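Researcher:
Attend to token order:
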Amino acid sequence: MTPEAWIVVGCVLGALVLFASERLPPEGVGVLVLLVLGLTGVVDAPTALAGFASPAVITVAAMFILSAGLVEAGAPAALASAIVRYGGTRVAVLTVLLVVVVGGMSAFINNIAATVILMPAAVTLARAADASSSRLLMPLAFGSMLGGLMTLIGTPPNLLVSDALAAAGERPFGMFDFAPTGAAILVAGLIYLVTVGRRLMPDRQGPDLEQNIAQTRDYTAEVRVPGGARLAGKSLRELRWRPRFDVSVMEIFRDGRRLRFPNAEEALYVGDVVLVEGEPDDVLRLTQVEGVEFASEQAWVPGRLQADDEEAEVLELIAGPRFSGLGRSIGAMRFRNRFGGLVLGVWRQGSHLRTRLRDQRIEAGDVLMVRMPRGRVADLEQSTDFIVLSQRARAVIPRPRMLVPIAILVLTVGLAAANIAHIAVAGILGAVLMVVTRVLPYERIYAAVEWRTLVLIAALLPLGTAMQSTGLAEDLAQAVTEPLRALGPYAVLAGIFILTSLLTQLMSNAAAVVLVAPIALGIAASFGIAPHPVVMMVAISGSTAFMTPIGHQSNVLIYNTGAFRFIDFIRVGGPLTLIVLMVSLIVVPIVWPL
């Protein structure tokens, strides 16, 4: 091999190691690979930056905006509300409803967004059915991945393999070319999840609001400001109890009045009873240093922290995929300043984290219990940082306004399906119409786009180009083809599926597809079979991240909420991956002859 080919090999191996280690964010790995290729001269500057102008990247960006428009108008929320109101209480029926709905949504909007929208509904339905939330959350996440296989815009891997075909001089996939294989796989996956998969699924209870409130009572106490106390007249800002003692002020009782959510300028006076939250040792240290006294022998006074308080509400939140404070501590989040509420506890994998709350760093999928003024709950629901797991079924009434984004989506899909416009151009038109019709406010356009995903795809696309230009893709294709030649084309398709599926468990599905697509095209040419069935297998296997909680953002979101363990994904996702492989080996050659 040439020196340039060895550099590409180093980039591929280095990227795999960094993706698996999670030392760098995925998009950071992509940019690092791009820099190595550009600085070593493996690709020139225009080629290195060509990914940022790729039709696939532009289309993915447009789809994010179209998805945000649909969500903004409330169309997906109306579906979720209907499931909650009319879904019943049978787990098998609810599983079918959730998989069908999330699968249908994921065919046309971002599958992570579909999961986010339906997660509160799944948790609510599980509690109504007296079942653990894990029984519905895993089918929801898996259904979102399966549904994305049905259309060209369902998931980035579909767009990427289509773009790879076009770059190789072949006819790219059309909008509904994925439908026959995608529908067959979705049906097979649904049957598995309702039957065998349901028996393999863990029956493990995730965080429960009432239980969490009970646990939090152990960390709540009342202290009284006695006569002659030095702190009398000082504001909460001056006292700095949170940074000094890791103790939070929740309420102040004064002259028969109850001050909920006191601000930092509120002062304490003699006779005030203060409801504080913190570790028992920290509260005890506060009383000794500040000269305050416990108001009663009971650390908890019933009724003071109820979810049904007339002015306050206790909620469960999930740190979503776009949480801006990932890796930051609770203290650094400044939750109280932003939303007016108080973080009472953090749960990870079903366990209450007992470390100092202020210093606890938040990860994607963590469940937070917070106490909020009722008037500020809407701020949380509109935040892109959190998913609110509401226990109360709220009806979302379909409005004529919802028809506008649906019509825009139909127009976009129709233009691309009829080959009137390229999918990237049709997508841009749909995004513009979302803004022009005021479905999506202009200032929310940039927030709607998952820039990390775009940077990752754009930065890695030159790697695929480099694999082809250096001859590495052809060399790898020959190395893979020779041992499989005697076994026939079906063995080749299975080998490509297994390779891509294993990679997508460890890294972004888009990254896995970018790496494998050039090799797959080389294998097709070397073996003398058509390129379309080969890259179709790449696209399908790129969406089989069922076996690890880190393979797909949908899995990350349900991991802590459902109190799952790593082995749960292997036990349930492993057989599902094999089923997808078997169905693909049957259906793909029929739809796309070898």
